[in-house]
Amino acid sequence: MINLAIQTAEQTEGFAIxxxxxxxxxxxxxxxxxxxxxxxxxINKVFKNLKVTPDDxxxxxxxxxxxxxxxLKVGAAYAKGFAFGGDIKIVPVASFEVLAEQVExxxxxxxxxxxRNLRAYCIIYNKSDKSLNILxxxxxxxxxxxxxxxxxxxxxIAGSAVTEYSAELKELGFxxxxxxxxxxxxxxxxxxxxxxxxAVDAFEIQPYYLAEPGITLKKK
Amino acid sequence: MEKKDxxxxxxxxxxxxxxxxxxxxxxxxxVLSNIISSQIKSLEKYGGVVPEVxxxxxxxxxxxxxxxxxxxxxxxxxxxxxxxxxxxxxxxxSLVVGQSFASGLAESLDIPLLEINHLEAHIYAxxxxxxxxxxxxxxxxxxxxxxxxxxxxxxxxxxxYKLLGRTRDDAAGEAFDKVARMLDLGxxxxxxxxxxxxxxxxxxxxxxxxxxxDSEDYDFxxxxxxxxxxxxxxxxxxxxxxxxxILNSKNHDPKSVHxxxxxxxxxxxxxxxxxxxxxxxxDVLVYKTIDAAQMLxxxxxxxxxxxxxxxRLRDKLIREAHNLDYDVFFPDFEFCLDNGAMIAGLGYxxxxx
Lengths: 220, 353
What we know:
The complex is a heterodimer.
Chain A: E1 2-7, E2 14-19, E3 22-28, H1 35-50, E4 59-65, H2 69-86, E5 89-94, H3 95-102, E6 107-115, E7 119-128, E8 131-142, H4 143-146, E9 155-158, H5 161-164, H6 166-171, H7 185-194, H8 214-219
Helix pairs in contact in A: 1-2, 3-7
Chain B: E1 9-14, E2 20-26, E3 30-37, H1 40-44, H2 51-73, E4 82-88, H3 92-109, E5 113-117, H4 118-124, E6 140-145, E7 150-157, E8 160-166, H5 172-182, H6 189-197, H7 223-238, H8 263-296, E9 300-304, H9 311-323, E10 327-329, H10 340-352
Parallel strand pairs in B: 1-4, 4-5, 6-9, 9-10
Antiparallel strand pairs in B: 1-2, 2-3, 6-7, 7-8
Helix pairs in contact in B: 2-3, 4-10, 5-6, 5-7, 5-8, 6-8, 8-9
């Protein structure tokens, strides 16, 4: 089955085209490119190179978030438009799942993504034989608060917070970090293929923001 | 609708601000559907547009809006020639939703994606029709007035525009929104003030400035006018004498007209203040537009943008222009506010140029 997997939740944004679990192409956007303009053009180009037509695509995989608010909307809107036009489904995959999938060893894994205002999006899993059990529910907070219950434990930290909050993490005593902290679209695509039964249509799929817009919080 | 050979059918998508819009237009002018999903209800509590909130709403509903536009037009996806979408200007979080959806849809249908300038589309909206084709002669002076823009353009031919002037601060529609907020009239302010002014309000009751009406250029400024209204509201709130011929007459003690004003008297004052503000805005827009046409020797005027729906602007500009034997064109009401039809209509000309 041909799968178009889109990851625009975080830099470096990109997409992959897979046939089942085999990666046919994987492309990352250039930093200077506006993803909303470049994504469609690049996908079109890669389809042509691979001699794949839009009709050949059986389903999409979308990294729904959390991550950059604008990035999430770009990816989700593109996926919605493509799925609407082709009457195909989209498998939603959380950013956390992609990062945890990329961690090679089993154990306690904290996937932490950079968020604004010195915060991070974080979930803590127990990863065992490719399955993920949630130990701490997803939330957005300072890195100190998010990891306070795991300070003296053997824990692997994955995600953009590893580079963004490197000094803070070391100061808190954490030093076991994942090798791969960029979300690869192909990793998302592989998860999507495995979770095909959870696919939804263009009307249902929504970005997973986790954090609300600042003004909404103030108004509440 | 049965597709005729060679006929270009374009789906237009517009999400530059808070309305999610989709429309199907044939050959650039004939509108088959025009779906506008307004976020007014969800934004009312903020007193205006919050970009991130608006964008999140767009993404929830855009497929529903597009589906409805196609259904109402009786068009199948495979009948579409192209998809047109607003590129600029607008709120970035909102714009990217429409652009990205349109991009994905165009890719999956393997048809062209046309990127459209929102301002040019508002000017173009005059050509849109559900019935008879409109004949608008070039050149014409175009007044573009909305919540974000107040500009005067001259057009010498299809897609040929030259900017004459623009607002130096607030847009006319923005001033309407801000004044409506000061007077607790709700959001959006333009329709609320227009409606109130159509009652027994006196548009000359309160003397307000007409900023830049005599300037030698075609620029506008509405910030000072808004501040003048604010000064009146401040006076009222402080219990000082308000600027009103009846409330401040000898029959009324100036110190008693505010705090002790009955609800009906306050309503009377608010109505007159709103109508006087609207009149000041309309005077400036009408005077400068007519002046531009006279100076350039052009006898056709078009108006576009949300404020083009203002009934006082329509009445006064038509009256003044007809006195000079000028032609004036306003879009049909449904094409004044942000809409997908103007995007699809202009998209036809981008495609065929």
